[in-house]
Specification:
The complex is a heterodimer of chains A (508) and B (286). Chain A folds into two domains: 18-197 and 205-283, no CATH class; 296-496, no CATH class. Chain A is 55% helix and 5% strand. Chain A is built from 22 helices and seven strands. Chain A has helices at residues 20-36, 39-55, 66-69, 74-97, 101-104, 111-120, 122-141, 152-175, 181-197, 225-228, 232-253, 259-279, 285-296, 322-335, 382-396, 399-403, 409-418, 424-431, 454-464, 468-477, 479-482, 489-496, and strands at residues 2-4, 303-307, 310-314, 346-349, 371-374, 441-443, 450-452. In chain A, the strands form two sheets. A four-stranded mixed β-sheet of chain A has the order 2-3-4-5. In chain A, α19 (454-464) packs parallel to α22. By secondary structure, chain B is an alpha/beta fold. In chain B, 32% of the residues lie in helices and 27% in strands. In chain B, the strands form three sheets. In chain B, strands 5-6-7-3-8-9 form a six-stranded mixed β-sheet, with helices on both faces. Chain B has a four-stranded antiparallel β-sheet with strand order 11-12-10-13. In chain B, strands 2-1-4 form a three-stranded antiparallel β-sheet, covered by helices on one side. In chain B, α3 packs across α4. The longest helix of chain B is centred in the middle third of the chain and has 14 residues, at 111-124. Chain B starts with a strand and ends in an 8-residue tail after the last helix. Classes of the chains: A mainly alpha (508), B alpha/beta (286). At the A-B interface, β1, α1 and α5 of A face β2, α2, α3, α4 and β9 of B. β1 of chain A pairs parallel with β2 of chain B.
Chain lengths: 508, 286
């Protein structure tokens, strides 16, 4: 049967030039705006920004090493990544869940392009993440105590992780049309990240754990940037390739076809594999040798400068910090008596980099006379700890001997170390392992710790409670006796004009 | 004269059911009604013409664009406005956002021009005041107008409306008819409906489908005229009538072959429609 209706043909009024690329970009912008305004993403960003504001000013006690600051926010960004995963997944599934798919299917922009638009909608989120990461790093870099250098690769890891998670969300929506799939995958990812953290490091300090998006380190020590040997650039390539592969697979799953798409997917996968393989390669022999040299004979890599009568030897990135060390040495020596006031010291920065960042190893105390060890960290508790080490070397002669101080000299050491610090009593609390100002305790220092008896603590507390000007002349006057081995705490107390403790010295 | 839509021999089978059976048609400017009982193939025909499903056999073109090729299908879709039978919505979107979203999917990419167009169609369907309101807060009638606005955005030359007045109250239905009538000015509208009043009020042409085939093609007046002399009133239901029902006055209105001396009534479009369905398989009038 044929039905015929007459009438003039109708032309459509074109609202501008049309193209699928431009439409996909417009859709990506539309979806990006909605994605950024979803509650989980907003909350995750709020937490991330809150973390930056809360953590950055005090990061590494205000003396940040930029080779650590560049990866400081990576773990927190996992939260943003997971929120993006869930929300972009829900956005892709929206048409299916709301039954608009059969309508949208007859509109001009095909499903594959819409999928691409969802993947592209991740770009603004990723850029925002990058801005936040850069702001956090820049904030650290601008601090007056900042040392070292950051890695662009490390800075890219966070944003690329968010991109990876988002691409996974898009692909997941194209493979499983269920809104609970993304939350389930997120839980699974959290578990996997825990498992990945436990992957063996393999040969050296790398290994399969680098297949996880964010790779944390067991050690909190700061190493010179050249000794870190974190394959951040390869890891960034791996993440970028992986994310791109997932996004392109999503477009394929969304109905996209053509040799260009297939070739791009293969290229992205090749990038991911290349980055993945290279990042897992063992630590190079050169790096291992450099780590060994820096740990065993740091003087070969260090630059030494003189401040006053003492010499300060630091790895190149820390040279500017020698002035801060010299200030502490000056303060301690100013309170000392005898030859200790003018004793030339060698302050040497030491690290144990032999195992990279896979573990914390305590530094052995130096047996070189008048040499004081200083670490790579500074600020906060590190200042009284270094001050205590300087005082102990001035009193005991070397760090090894200082570690076994078990008599009244410990009182002199602690008074010398703390009396000229801004808040001596707080510093006493900070330098003690138990954070108390009473009883016996371990006293932290850059190398082996020292110990204080309860009686010594009482005397030191009493001394620090009095004006330094009252004690200092007594220290100077009785310096020889105060620093004599086996001098009792009671005798020291008497010489310095405070009450003697009842209990005898008994080291733990 | 070139028609907006021309189709020939469209056939589509769903399993054992022949949803479309050799349907041919040519549509020009104005509103064309598509009547038919449930299962007649109306929605299937609309979905085929809207390129939602391909026909098993036959061909069609819209404004000269053949959907058999990807490029032709794209061009056709650029000229198509489609309002599905039960349109879905994104309830968290505002009316503006939803229509804007559809406009993007129609590849209206210039943001300023697109937003102007979205405002225009929302004005056209009388939703300017609520365009910033989320769809979940809108009434059923308003939502239906949002769907119509989404179909109208981009000023398509061919508008496919699948039962757009279902579920609307009389006032909303009347408002919707006005909108469809406006939409029919200057474009081709194919309106599927169960409501013969819709056709009577809106359409200059009507197609009646049954069993996947077109059983009638003509003007509403011609369809009505098919019942001339075949509607009568009686005090009892006439067993010879093809259809009959009790009216509000207590008498029976019968449609079919009246007995001699029957008290004949003025036929309506519905009478003509019922008689056409009853005679499905008979020769189509036009």
């Amino acid at each position: 049967m044929t039905a015929v209706l007459d009438g003039a043909p109708v032309a459509t009024r074109d609202a501008g030039r049309r193209s699928s690329w431009a439409a996909a970009l417009a859709l990506a912008l539309f979806e990006a705006r909605r994605l950024l305004l979803t509650l989980p993403v907003l909350l995750a960003f709020a937490l991330y920004v809150g973390w930056i504001v809360w953590r950055t000013p005090d990061f590494q006690d205000g003396y940040p090493a930029l080779q650590d600051a560049d990866r400081a926010g990576q773990t927190t960004l996992l939260l943003v990544g997971m929120a993006v995963l869930v929300c972009v997944n829900q956005a892709v599934l929206r048409a299916k869940r709301r039954d608009t798919e059969r309508h949208f299917a007859v509109l001009v922009l095909p499903r594959s392009w819409r999928t691409a638009a969802h993947a592209l909608s991740l770009v603004p989120v990723v850029l925002l993440t990058a801005v936040c990461a850069l702001a956090q790093f820049g904030w650290s870099a601008l601090r007056s105590g900042a040392v070292g250098s950051g890695s662009p690769g490390e800075l890219l890891v966070g944003p690329l992780t968010v991109l990876l998670f988002g691409a996974l969300g898009v692909l997941l929506a194209r493979l499983v049309a269920s809104p609970i799939a993304a939350p389930l995958i997120t839980v699974l990812l959290v578990l996997m990240l825990f498992v990945a953290g436990g992957f063996p490091a393999g040969d050296g300090e790398r290994g399969l754990r680098w297949l996880a998006p964010v790779v944390t380190e067991a050690s909190s020590q700061t190493l010179p940037a050249a000794l870190l040997d974190r394959p951040a650039a390869w890891h960034a390539l791996y993440l970028a390739g992986f994310a791109l592969t997932l996004a392109l697979l999503a477009v394929l799953a969304g109905g996209g076809r053509g040799w260009m798409l297939t070739a791009a997917t293969a290229g992205a996968a090749a990038l991911a594999v290349t980055g993945g393989v290279l990042q897992c390669a063992p630590v190079g022999a050169d790096t291992k040798a450099a780590r060994e040299r820096a740990s065993v004979s740091p003087e070969k890599d260090q630059t030494c400068v003189r401040h006053g009568s003492s010499t300060y030897c630091a790895f190149p990135e820390w040279t500017a910090r020698t002035e801060s060390w010299a200030d502490v040495v000056h303060d301690v020596q100013s309170s000392a008596g005898g030859t200790a006031r003018t004793q030339p010291l060698v302050v040497r920065q030491r690290i144990d980099a032999r195992h990279g960042l896979t573990g914390d190893a305590a530094l052995e105390p130096s047996m070189t006379p008048h040499q004081v060890t200083v670490g790579t960290a500074w600020g906060g508790n590190r200042v009284p700890e270094f001050s205590a080490a300087v005082a102990a070397v001035l009193v005991a002669g070397d760090e090894k001997a200082a570690g076994s101080l078990c008599d009244g000299r410990m009182v002199t050491v602690m008074w010398l170390a703390l009396n000229r610090l801004p808040d001596p009593m707080t510093s006493l609390r900070d330098v003690r392992l138990d954070d108390s100002v009473s009883g016996s305790a371990i006293v932290l220092s850059p190398t082996n710790p020292m110990s204080m008896t309860a009686g010594q603590t009482d005397v030191v507390r009493e001394l620090l409670g009095r004006p330094a000007g009252e004690i200092a002349p007594r220290v100077t006057a009785h310096w020889a006796e105060l620093t004599t081995p086996k001098v009792t705490t009671a005798r020291v107390a008497k010489l310095l004009g405070v009450a003697a403790p009842k209990a005898a010295d008994r080291c733990e | 004269m070139i028609p907006t839509v021309s189709a020939s021999g469209l056939s589509l089978r769903y399993g054992r059911a022949q949803a479309l059976d050799d349907v041919s048609l040519r549509l020009g400017q104005g509103v064309t009604g598509l009547l038919g009982p449930n299962g007649a193939g109306k929605t299937t025909l609309l979905r085929v013409l809207a390129t939602a499903v391909p026909a098993d056999r036959g061909a069609f073109a819209v404004l000269g664009h053949d959907p058999a090729t990807p490029a032709g299908r794209q061009e056709l879709r650029r000229r198509l406005g489609y309002l599905p039978q039960t349109p879905g919505f994104h309830p968290d979107f505002t009316a503006f956002e939803f229509v804007d979203y559809v406009a993007i999917l129609k590849e209206l990419t210039d943001r300023a021009a697109r937003h102007r167009e979205v405002r225009r169609v929302l004005d056209e369907v009388d939703l300017a005041d609520v365009r910033g309101k989320r769809i979940k807060k809108l009434s059923g009638g308003m939502r239906q107008r949002v769907a119509l606005a989404a179909a109208l955005v981009g000023d398509p030359g061919f508008l496919v409306l699948d039962e757009p007045t279902v579920g609307l109250d009389p006032e909303q239905r009347m408002r919707f008819r006005e909108l469809i009538a406006q939409a029919g000015e200057g474009r081709t509208v194919l309106l599927s409906t169960h409501q013969t009043e819709d056709v009577a009020m809106l359409c200059h042409r009507v197609l009646v489908m049954a069993g996947g085939r077109i059983r009638f093609d003509g003007t509403p007046a011609e369809l009505t005229a098919r019942a001339a002399g075949r509607v009568w009133i009686s005090t009892e239901r006439d067993p010879a009538a093809k259809a009959g029902w009790r009216t509000g006055t207590g008498t029976f209105r019968n449609v079919g072959s009246p007995p001699d001396g029957a008290d004949l009534l003025e036929p309506t479009l519905e009478d003509g429609y019922l008689l056409t369905l009853d005679g499905a398989g008979a020769e189509v009038a036009a």
